[in-house]
TrEMBL record, chain A:
Involved in protein N-glycosylation. Essential for the second step of the dolichol-linked oligosaccharide pathway. GO terms for biological process: dolichol-linked oligosaccharide biosynthetic process. This is UDP-N-acetylglucosamine transferase subunit ALG13. It comes from Zopfia rhizophila CBS 207.26. Its main location: endoplasmic reticulum. The gene is ALG13.
Automatic annotation (TrEMBL), chain B:
Keywords: Endoplasmic reticulum, Membrane, Transferase, Transmembrane, Transmembrane helix. It comes from the Eukaryota. This is UDP-N-acetylglucosamine transferase subunit ALG14. The chain crosses the membrane at residues 12-34, 157-180, 200-219. Residues 107-135 are annotated as: Disordered. It comes from Zopfia rhizophila CBS 207.26.
Amino acid sequence: MDEEKAKVCFVTTGATAPFTDLIKAVFKTEAVDALQKAGYTHMLVQYGTAKDVFEQSSLNALRHMDGNTPRKPIRIEGIDFKQGLKDEFKLARTSNGLVISHAGSGSILEALRYDVPLIVVPNDRLLHNHQAELAKAMAASNYLLEGNTDNLAPSIAYSESFKMKKAQFPPITSGKHRETEGLEAIMDAELGFQD
Amino acid sequence: MAPPSTSLLTVTFFLALLSTLLVAVSLRLIFILTNKRVPPPKWRKKGSPTRILIVLGSGGHTHEMFYLLRDLDTSKYTYRTYVVSLGDAFSAQRAIEFEKELEEREKQRARKESENGYPERKVELGGKGAEKRTPHVGPESYDIAIVPRARNIHQSLFTAPFTSLRCLLSCFPVLLSGTQQLLEPPKDGFEGVSCDLPDLIMTNGPATAVIVILASWILRFFDIKGANSRDKMRTIYVESFARVTTLSLSGALLLKVADRFLVQWEQLEGKGGRAEFHGILV
């Protein structure tokens, strides 16, 4: 049997609030089809407290994929929560895969350090949230892709070609502030450390 | 003697006292404020002892703070105090890990230097070649100060002033002398700064930061331990990377107060006439 190369899509829903809409969104038939089309072999989902939602929707997705012959069904695994997702981000990175994440700034910052294509999905149900703003601004700078819970398939399909145009993060220079001084220079100036 | 006149006298006396105090306070505030707005570019020798105070907050703030400080040079920032809220074991843990990373980095640098037989050159534009640098890492170079929370999650707004006051009071000793109790007089300047007022306060907006900076202002106001005359406790506020178009509550409160107010999105540049944008810093 030919050993197929693994390609991992890691989905993280965050630690604070359960984000069931995202779990449902990644297992929608269109999204799963898009993942299969892009050659994904594994899905790893950090579902938080919403284990029942994860189990139900992943089951539906598996049933759907069974009918999707001749494609091999994607293997689905779940974790509830763990401190630090370093290994998971690395797995997505080394398998030339993808991360789909909630829009918390901590996850965004961590995922981007691993230089992995990232689709960020803001949680519309959170009140007073600035997550959508952040996701939009980051997407405008080509650091990541902004997705939504209604339809993730286009973002997944686009993520393949996005790998080529993804901007480096953290940026070395930015726009008109090309001669920008880093935080260290500002701290030095405040303390009077001068060259 | 008619009794009303004395009471009248008392009232007038207090009114006079009050207005005198008010004038004195405003004069003093104006003095400090105008003095601080123009940063005196005093020259400080690299490698001289400094103490910086880093205010940590809940998960997100703490994460961002350590991204901000990732390149911290311990040969310049020789002593660090991390302020952590009571019960926030995560932030305390992260501070310890961060210090271990700093230590490890210096060990690797030293190893490399001994292998090469010459100090690693730091190439800079207009560089002056390698300077002798002495890193300050390890348990003697930092401490973690724990203060009670200014406001607990879901705490009623009525009791918030009391808990904030308790937090404020516990900030004074942290600012004045830190948590390291020296049994003998400090043997050198580096030990000396560990129990002196911090030179710099770094924060990115947890509620505790507002209280810490308020405390620093009270000390500056009364010039306690030379807080103002020695130009101690300059403050740098970095608004959260998550704030794109609006400031956080802490940010709004500290916008006019921090010596340097940095934002990470261009949309916020110039807020309050002083928010600076130098690109994304995290």
